[in-house]
Design goal:
With 110 residues, the chain is mainly β. It has two helices and seven strands, in the order ββαβββαββ. The chain has one domain: SH3 type barrels (Roll), CATH 2.30.30.
Protein backbone atom coordinates (compact mmCIF):
# COMPACT_ATOMS: atom_id res chain seq x y z
CA UNK A 1 0.00 0.00 0.00
CA UNK A 2 1.21 3.49 -0.86
CA UNK A 3 1.49 6.30 1.65
CA UNK A 4 1.50 9.92 0.58
CA UNK A 5 4.54 11.95 1.51
CA UNK A 6 4.32 15.32 3.20
CA UNK A 7 7.51 16.64 1.63
CA UNK A 8 7.63 18.98 -1.32
CA UNK A 9 9.22 17.65 -4.51
CA UNK A 10 12.82 18.74 -4.99
CA UNK A 11 12.35 19.55 -8.70
CA UNK A 12 9.67 21.45 -10.57
CA UNK A 13 8.72 21.22 -14.24
CA UNK A 14 11.39 23.04 -16.21
CA UNK A 15 14.24 21.90 -13.97
CA UNK A 16 17.36 20.47 -15.61
CA UNK A 17 18.56 17.22 -14.07
CA UNK A 18 21.17 14.49 -14.42
CA UNK A 19 20.42 10.87 -13.59
CA UNK A 20 22.70 9.81 -10.74
CA UNK A 21 23.24 6.25 -12.01
CA UNK A 22 22.91 6.47 -15.80
CA UNK A 23 24.32 9.96 -16.36
CA UNK A 24 21.78 11.21 -18.87
CA UNK A 25 20.71 14.86 -18.81
CA UNK A 26 17.07 15.79 -19.00
CA UNK A 27 14.27 18.26 -18.46
CA UNK A 28 11.48 17.67 -15.93
CA UNK A 29 8.13 17.89 -17.72
CA UNK A 30 5.88 16.61 -14.91
CA UNK A 31 5.98 14.79 -11.58
CA UNK A 32 3.90 12.57 -9.34
CA UNK A 33 4.03 12.78 -5.52
CA UNK A 34 4.78 9.03 -5.45
CA UNK A 35 5.34 6.27 -8.00
CA UNK A 36 2.17 5.91 -10.05
CA UNK A 37 3.46 3.08 -12.27
CA UNK A 38 1.86 -0.30 -11.92
CA UNK A 39 3.50 -3.03 -9.87
CA UNK A 40 4.66 -4.96 -12.94
CA UNK A 41 6.55 -1.91 -14.27
CA UNK A 42 8.04 -1.21 -10.85
CA UNK A 43 9.25 -4.78 -10.36
CA UNK A 44 10.88 -4.69 -13.82
CA UNK A 45 12.81 -1.55 -12.83
CA UNK A 46 16.41 -2.54 -12.17
CA UNK A 47 16.97 -0.24 -9.20
CA UNK A 48 13.52 -0.26 -7.55
CA UNK A 49 13.92 2.99 -5.60
CA UNK A 50 11.45 3.82 -2.86
CA UNK A 51 7.98 4.32 -4.32
CA UNK A 52 7.05 6.79 -1.58
CA UNK A 53 8.89 9.81 -2.99
CA UNK A 54 8.40 12.16 -5.92
CA UNK A 55 8.77 10.53 -9.35
CA UNK A 56 9.49 12.63 -12.43
CA UNK A 57 8.69 12.42 -16.12
CA UNK A 58 11.92 13.46 -17.83
CA UNK A 59 12.58 14.43 -21.45
CA UNK A 60 15.98 12.85 -22.15
CA UNK A 61 18.51 15.12 -23.90
CA UNK A 62 19.60 14.12 -27.44
CA UNK A 63 16.92 11.43 -27.54
CA UNK A 64 13.26 10.84 -28.30
CA UNK A 65 12.95 8.98 -24.99
CA UNK A 66 11.16 10.00 -21.84
CA UNK A 67 11.88 8.37 -18.51
CA UNK A 68 10.13 8.03 -15.19
CA UNK A 69 12.72 8.55 -12.48
CA UNK A 70 12.64 8.62 -8.70
CA UNK A 71 13.77 11.81 -6.99
CA UNK A 72 16.59 9.94 -5.22
CA UNK A 73 18.09 9.11 -8.63
CA UNK A 74 18.21 12.70 -9.89
CA UNK A 75 20.68 15.52 -9.32
CA UNK A 76 20.41 19.15 -10.41
CA UNK A 77 22.19 19.80 -13.73
CA UNK A 78 24.45 22.80 -13.13
CA UNK A 79 25.32 23.18 -16.84
CA UNK A 80 22.26 25.22 -17.88
CA UNK A 81 22.83 23.81 -21.39
CA UNK A 82 19.87 23.50 -23.73
CA UNK A 83 17.97 20.20 -23.86
CA UNK A 84 17.50 18.71 -27.32
CA UNK A 85 14.27 16.68 -27.38
CA UNK A 86 11.37 16.74 -29.88
CA UNK A 87 8.78 17.46 -27.14
CA UNK A 88 10.50 20.50 -25.60
CA UNK A 89 8.62 23.00 -27.78
CA UNK A 90 5.29 21.29 -27.07
CA UNK A 91 5.57 21.78 -23.30
CA UNK A 92 7.97 24.68 -22.74
CA UNK A 93 9.00 28.12 -23.82
CA UNK A 94 12.31 29.76 -22.95
CA UNK A 95 12.26 32.89 -20.82
CA UNK A 96 14.62 35.76 -21.69
CA UNK A 97 17.11 34.45 -19.11
CA UNK A 98 17.10 30.99 -20.78
CA UNK A 99 14.99 29.16 -18.19
CA UNK A 100 12.45 26.57 -19.32
CA UNK A 101 8.93 27.72 -18.50
CA UNK A 102 6.20 25.06 -18.53
CA UNK A 103 3.04 25.82 -20.51
CA UNK A 104 -0.48 24.67 -19.57
CA UNK A 105 -0.58 21.64 -21.86
CA UNK A 106 -1.22 18.55 -19.70
CA UNK A 107 1.36 15.78 -19.69
CA UNK A 108 -0.28 12.53 -20.76
CA UNK A 109 2.86 10.72 -21.84
CA UNK A 110 4.08 7.34 -20.78
Amino acid sequence: MFKFTETEPKFAPGALVVHRRYGYRGLIVSFDPRCMADERWYLANRTQPNQNQAWYHVLVHDSVMTTYAAESNLLPDPSDEEVNHPLVDEFFFRSPDGQYQRNDRPWTGP
